[in-house]
Request: fold
Amino acid sequence: MAVVISNKSLNLVLMLCLFLIISFAEGKQIGGIGFVGVKATPRCQQVYGVEAGDTCSGIMAKFKLTAHFFAINPNINCNTIFIGQWLCIAGTTK
Reply:
């Protein structure tokens, strides 16, 4: 048995798909659909190049940083920082 879909129904489905794709791509909500609790985008104002022997806690102490350090470096893995890696030491999250 063949299923027949009208052009109006197909257009409606395609438009809904387009809105969902845009919503996910932009990380915004459209009519309550989308990512809930999207994290703020960090804006770095000053960077530091990791040197031999550096650790996250050592860098935080050196520059008197708080837990905000992790907000402006959201993808940091303190177990795998490497020499020459750029870390944000001053910035904002918007």
